[in-house]
Amino acid sequence: MHLFEVVLPVFLIAGVAALSQRWLKLDPRALSRATFYVFIPALIFDALADADLGRSQVGPMTVALLIVTLLLLGLGWAVARALRLTAQRRGAFLSAVVMANVGNYGLPVVQMAFGTAGLVPAAIYLMLFNMLLIPLGIYLAAQGKTSVTGALRHVITVPALYAAALGVAFSLGRWSLPVPVMVAVRMLAQATNPVFLLILGVQLQGAVTSSWDKRMLPALASLVALRLLVSPGLAWGVGGWVGLHGLTFDVFVLDNAFPTAVLVGIFATEYDADPEFATLCIFVTTIVSLLTVPLVLGRIVG
């Protein structure tokens, strides 16, 4: 019941946006671009500038995240080839496999499950997600339409990467922005999650009203298995192997059990990587996670 109460506001905001879209006719691409170039960089900088990067678990968690991501990429690539997905759909599929919603879905669930103490390792994981997986997600979305070199060129031109670098520099150097500037950045950062949910609702409305391609079903079923079941299983094994322990281990496993991130839809829209399929990935994994996340959490605390 507690988990349902945490997740319900997410569905309420997205649902209101989806219902309103019939009359408001919001442009999902314009919303996505505003989020991509304004809100996400502010969120990343705000999270990293205040993070304590000296914690002993940062190193093992980084190694564990890289290993789990590489394993998921390998499995996802094999599935994509077996299903003969198009280049654009393959990019969306792989992004959906490796990028979990550890922000607006994950943080409240972690806090409900482990209390305020759980937010410390959750914030470190979110920092690593911002630094490592966002550039990867951009690359995967862009490579469906361009060469490897072109996709890498897209990665190095996005503001999120430079926001992460600045955030790390400010954290390590113990620097701070002038108060009015920092307040403005924080206001933008705090607005990011509601905008994410607004975009999700607009995208879901489009997905529900459009005709579904039955050929998506095998890919969606494979995604559910990889994102919601295989990912936390890998996190459990790899996390223990690299030396994660206690609350950090628990949060690491739970973070890897969350559904596909809203960012996947934003990147797919920005780079035309089959945004309709990406939206369905977010929608389906979020719905199914209402069953799988409590199972994973029960295994962790049990």
Which terms would index this structure?
302 residues, mainly alpha, Na+/H+ antiporter like fold, 0% strand
Provide a short characterization of the protein structure.
The chain is mostly helical. 81% of the residues lie in helices and 0% in strands. The chain has 13 helices and no strands.
Description:
The radius of gyration is 18 Å and the shape is globular. The protein has one domain (28-301): Up-down Bundle (Na+/H+ antiporter like fold). The chain has 13 helices and no strands. The two termini are 17 Å apart. Helix 6 (119-142) runs parallel beside helix 12 (262-271). It has helices at residues 2-24, 28-49, 58-82, 87-98, 106-114, 119-142, 148-156, 159-173, 179-209, 216-242, 246-255, 262-271, 275-301. By secondary structure, the chain is mainly α.
